[in-house]
Sequence to fold (226 residues):
Amino acid sequence: MSFQGFGPQALPFLKALGFHQTKEWFEDNRATYESQLKGPLGDLVEELSSRFAKSGTPLKGDRKASLFRINRDVRFARDKSPYKTNAGAVLTRGGAKNDVGLFYIHVAADGCFCAAGFYQPDPDALTRLRRAIARAPKAWTKATAQLAEAGLALSDEYAMKRAPRGFEGVADPILAAALRNKSFICSRPIADSRLSAPALVDDLQAFAADAMPLLEWGWSAVVDAR
Fold:
């Protein structure tokens, strides 16, 4: 089914869920969750996947594999709230959530956004990304320059304060800052007014194209170089 927009109760549902963290309330309002939020998110993922296939964009997903559960994993968490207050989905090159390199959609009452890149990669993948920056700085500089041309910047939210072990001798301050990153992610906000618009698919397809230099650079460093 083509994406027709999220329902008008999608964000109010998520906001209310933050105050009603009980199974009873959720089950009483499950129909709203399914029709206003989960169903449309599945439609969005599958329409994006179809469009990506037609345009040759190496990202895919489906409503079964790509959507994150609304239930929180509280086994080792101090916060035992059973439900997330956001909905999310991810498309990857292979279609599985744990594939390296992702395109992410986040819907929440306190802010919606799309993101792409390499989020908290495992130690081996992170080392490969850092080595690619140090070994071929021109390729890294080109990728980030293309992001900048599209109005995107790499997040430094997950950066280390000091140079990682093995990369202490990099003199260039821009490269040294990049090497401190533990994630390589760019993002773009989604206006709440766009959630109900079928044209949100166009917005996300455009973002994927803008973020592709980062994904292609990272795939080359982590996956294709093996």
